[in-house]
Amino acid sequence: MEGLKVWRLSSSIARPSNLRQLFGLGTSSGLVRCLDNGAAAANATNTRFPSRNRRASTSTSTSTNTSDREAVRAIRLKKVEQLRSKGTEPYGYKWDRSHSAKELQEIYKDLNNGEELDSESHHVSIAGRIVARRAFGKLAFLTLRDDSGTIQLYCEKERLLNDQFEQLKTLVDIGDILGASGSIKRTEKGELSVKVDSFSILTKSLLPLPDKFHGLTDIDKRYRQRYVDMIANPEVADIFRKRAKIMREIRKTVESRGFVEVETPVLQGAAGGAEARPFVTYHNSLGRDLYLRIATELHLKRMLVGGFEKVYEIGRIFRNEGISTRHNPEFTTIEMYEAYSDYQSMMDMAEEIVTQCALEVNGKLTIDYQGTEIQLQRPWRRETMHNLVKEVTGVDFTELEDDLKVAKDVVLKAVGLGLDSKDKSSIEACPSLGHLLNEVFEIFVEPKLLQPTFVLDYPIEISPLAKPHRRHAGLTERFELFICGRELANAFSELTDPLDQRARLEQQVRQHNKKRAEAVSVTDGTGEQKNIDEDSMYEVTLDDDFLTALEYGMPPASGMGLGIDRLVMLLTDSASIRDVIAFPVLKISQ
Q1: Which domain holds residue 226?
Q2: Which of the chain's ends, N or C, has fewer CB atoms near its CB within 10 Å?
Q3: pLDDT in tens, the chain (590 residues)
């Protein structure tokens, strides 16, 4: 913007005493001043690092900000009335644009400073939101932002017809959406501008935007009002543009290998394909409970039974569990299944998907994630869970006997020093050697897997849908992909023996029901009922139709599920899953 640091309105600075000045009402020069840099910097510092003394006045400050916000809204509502009284509708129907801001910046990138193109062939029409403005005397500068970028509007009183310049000064606010047309000019200071000869208010904004210095810094509010977050912080919108690129590249990669995209039910009669607490709903017409899916796996396998050989689905998954920086109750995965292949094929596919997405979004295979350099060049490390546990803890599970108690003693002796009580309890509660191996892996190994690593050959006890390992008894042909200490993908050589599959799922149901029984409400000694483990209280049922499908015969196959949200986090350097989901699930606002 010409000679101007970007300035945005904020409820935190719009005090009733200076509202008339801020909105250009009754000022002698019409000047809308920028914030003092020193004061703004001090305010920004105080916002980020509030002192203990400031905490006591939080409620008062919140009340003041709310009243200021309502005062701004009241003034803008009066402007809506003024516009309508002049015969101008402040909520337009359409605007014909000739260019986007980015297109103009590209077309006229070689225009010299001070040069102006006033011929009909250089007459342009644009539209977008006003994010900054400065008006004085007979000249005004506005910054217009559209989906592609920003461009300056250069407004002269003599050039605008009738009373449009006065309307611009008194009725146009930051946050309004305008359409403008005019010729092209580059100012003496090098700012490409549309020299406006007419404009129209397309949408009158009633609420003030956050200002440049304070921005929208309340994390909860950023997630809750993502639309404001994207206006105040354009880089946030860039994350969702990159997410769209990643989704497009995933489809392109798998379809280039002959995979067909299919859709499977979100509402299911049995929540299968994973061990997770489902959301339950009730269908009035059918008179039955239904579950939001916790995986797409079992229906995709039905497609293989039906004759498809390569299928995939990108879809939302719903799990009624905890919320963290890595977990959201609804999230997006891609699951894919390929007949006549094993889990080795899916390792190649995982490498291909991640590297192609990295190149599409970042143009390189060396990326930075939260200060850690990640090397995505292929091939990635492939190592068994047994070897990784031995490498980190010194415990060789292949040498342990079948005595679970002895195995736990060996593990606690090797790693017990400094182990917190929660992890120690988790180890002591393991019902089998396979569960113990996995628990040790999750506690000690998983956080250390920063570079891409395929962890192979999981215990059969924790892999009810995976094929038994063809060489190692008690293990399955399964891998998980870890990057930055986080699971990114999970894959199997799929279990196709219907009798083995039924036995394993029935065992899983029995184990869950036992855990559920132990979690039933008990008396805590005061007569009050207290739940031991509420997350274990959901019901698990067999998907008999899936087992019936297997009895018709499913070809040998491999399958993989890959978390798209976590992949987007990795490739956009986002610390929380909420940063890559446009509207994440949040607690009710108090």
Answers
A1: 221-380+480-495+552-589
A2: C
A3: 444 333 333 333 333 333 333 333 333 333 333 333 333 333 333 333 333 333 333 444 455 577 888 999 999 999 999 999 999 999 999 999 999 999 999 999 999 999 999 999 999 999 999 999 998 889 999 999 999 999 999 999 999 988 899 999 999 999 999 999 999 999 999 999 999 999 999 999 999 998 754 556 678 888 999 999 999 899 999 999 999 999 999 999 999 999 999 999 999 998 888 888 999 999 999 999 999 999 999 999 999 999 999 999 999 999 998 888 889 999 999 999 999 999 999 999 999 999 999 999 999 999 999 999 999 999 999 999 999 999 999 999 999 988 999 999 999 999 988 789 999 999 999 999 999 999 999 999 999 999 999 999 999 999 999 999 999 999 999 999 999 999 999 999 999 999 999 999 998 888 888 888 877 655 445 555 555 556 667 778 889 999 999 999 999 999 999 999 999 999 999 999 999 999 998 888 76
Domain assignment present for residue 519? The answer is no
Do residues 320 and 198 both lie within one domain? no
pTM recorded for the entire structure: 0.84
Q: Residue 38 domain-assigned?
A: no
Per the structure, the count of domains in the chain is 2
- As given in the structure block, the two tokens for residue 374 are 């990640």
Last residue of a domain, one of 203, 238, 264: 203
Residue type at 441 in one-letter notation: F
Cβ(386)–Cβ(438) below 8 Å: no
In this structure, how many other beta carbons lie within 10 angstroms of the beta carbon of residue 285? 5
Look at residue 61 and tell me if it is in a domain.
no
For residue 59, the surrounding DSSP H or E stretch is helix 58-85
CATH number at residue 183: 2.40.50.140
Which token pair is 440? 């040790």
